[in-house]
Amino acid sequence: AQTVTQSQPEMSVQEAETVTLSCTYDTSESDYYLFWYKQPPSRQMILVIRQEAYKQQNATENRFSVNFQKAAKSFSLKISDSQLGDAAMYFCAYRRRIQGAQKLVFGQGTRLTINP
Amino acid sequence: KAGVTQTPRYLIKTRGQQVTLSCSPISGHRSVSWYQQTPGQGLQFLFEYFSETQRNKGNFPGRFSGRQFSNSRSEMNVSTLELGDSALYLCASSPWDSPTDTQYFGPGTRLTVL
Question: Mapping DSSP to helix (H, G, I), strand (E, B) and coil, where does residue B103 land?
């Protein structure tokens, strides 16, 4: 079974600075997807960024980028120029890359606080 | 396009009752998945439907059931409610059956069992 671990229950950062959230996962499969989802106080789960395991290039989305280390099974999220609106719970998630596999396996989450 | 909608947003029930939650996916989406979110257990997969068929089921007791209609709307039902069923129930939809699909989440239904 696949597992996802986020070792940082809480993180805080000053506005405009950079913060990195950690995630490790365990799987015996070679082809899969990794995701970072953001859940603000409204509880709406929002996709931040997605990484395909077969791609060596790290995904980026504006101020958000990942450091994907497949051999180490590590998938960290870097948020640059942090903004107050980035405050939320962040969840790392795994999904198999096969037909019909929609199940997401989530980590426990990291609560990110942005200090003005 | 309208996003994923879930009704009701909040629900209070007592132990032993049953409850039905509804999820309307994004127009054109055919896959709907359900998740339970609690402070202790985090986000756990309940089940997934595609074209009115349950394809995957998480490790939950038989009190948890669901179905999907021909218009892709989905309902989940919890019978004989227990205190531990208090949670945020999230549904997510995705377009097709492709491994490249991204799932989009609804705002959730907050269920409180007294």
Answer: coil
